[in-house]
Amino acid sequence: MKEQFDISELPAEPDAKIGIRETFHVDTDAFAPAFSRRTAHVPKIDPCYRFDPATTMAILTGFAENRRIIIQGRHGTGKSTHIDQVAARLNWPCIRVNLDSHISRIDLVGKDAIVLREGKQITEYREGILPWAYQRPLALVFDEYDAGRPDVMFVIQRVLEAEGRLTILDQNRVLSPHPSFRLFATANTIGLGDASGLYHGTQQLNQAQLDRWNIVTRLDYLPEAEEAAVVHARAPWMNDEEGQRLVLQMVRTAEQTRTGFQAGDISTLMSPRTVICWAENYRSFGDLEYAFETAFLNRCDENDRPTIAEYYQRATGRTLKFSGTSPWRRSRA
């Protein structure tokens, strides 16, 4: 493992290059800028992560050319982790901020705080996460971007231009971005609201602000074989012949829920995260049906369950009993 350095020890700009083909398995001879040193703010590399070529190239463009990138897609597609894993391989420091309803303007910009110095209480300005990141060689990722409060969104709007300067009114300061500061965002919707009801708390975004994002890319669920490979990587105990057959059935069940959701037949769907949870629950309980119930079915609407049972039967060849109880209680019934 490489020695970890403090972020302040990094050069102003990347001092190394890595091959995109060898590192990310994307069909190109291009190279990506990277840092030769690894700091504590660099995400941990996940060797099992599978990169989507189009999304990977968009993120790499953001790092290489200082473009503002927003990734849109349904839950569980790996939007945030995609940025994390690209940054991890570039040795680029990266932090994520979830724009939930509790994040306020002062959380981003900073505020005055009372501190104790030499036995006396004094007022001291405490920098928020945005100016702190803005002045460092760091990638800042805003998760759940379409759930941010309006006052927070207008603060972010100031820094969306590559050379945009950040004004700290409380300090009468104007900050210029660090040469290696990068900005990314992820969202479940594309800023036009959520008609499906699946993502409560999201809202319509200011179109003038959306226009300031240089690249908007969409990340969908993986093809069947690739999603199965991800599940196998996360659930290595299912890598025997029987396990491979079951994982394929799990992925096909998930695919049917996604198709049914898009058609309006059911009100929720299975993400790859849910499929992995199903595999983990199967290991814990040793019962495929109960593992499915606890991973997905128990959070579905009652009216959707007959349709989901049909999907389950098509994919696995088994009948869902809607027991709602553990296999041990069923054996006593």
Radius of gyration: 23 Å
Q: Helical element count?
A: 13
The top level CATH class name of the largest domain: Alpha Beta
SSE order, one letter for each helix or strand: EEHEEHEHEHEEHEHEEEHEHHHHHH
The helix fraction, in percent, is 25-40%
Work out the count of structural domains: 2
Give me the side-by-side strand order of the main sheet. 6-9-12-5-13
The structure class reads alpha/beta
Can you summarize the main beta sheet? Answer: 5 strands, parallel
CATH architecture verdict of the largest domain: 3-Layer(aba) Sandwich
What do we call the CATH topology of the largest domain?
Rossmann fold
Name the CATH superfamily classification of the largest domain. Answer: P-loop containing nucleotide triphosphate hydrolases
Low-confidence stretches: none
Q: For the record, give the distance between the C-alpha atoms at the N and C termini, rounded to a whole number.
A: 54 Å
Morphology call: globular
Explain how this protein is built.
The chain has helices at 20-24, 53-65, 79-90, 105-109, 129-134, 150-157, 207-210, 224-234, 241-262, 272-285, 288-295, 305-316, 327-332, and strands spanning 4-5, 16-19, 31-34, 38-39, 69-72, 94-98, 110-117, 120-127, 139-143, 166-168, 173-175, 182-187, 215-218. The chain is α/β, with parallel strands linked by helices. It has 2 domains: 4-218, P-loop containing nucleotide triphosphate hydrolases (Rossmann fold); 224-332. The strands form 5 sheets. A 5-stranded parallel sheet has the order 6-9-12-5-13. Strands 1-4 form a two-stranded parallel ribbon. A hairpin with a 2-residue loop joins β7 (110-117) and β8 (120-127). α9 (241-262) crosses α10 (272-285) and α10 crosses α11. It is globular, with a radius of gyration of 23 Å.
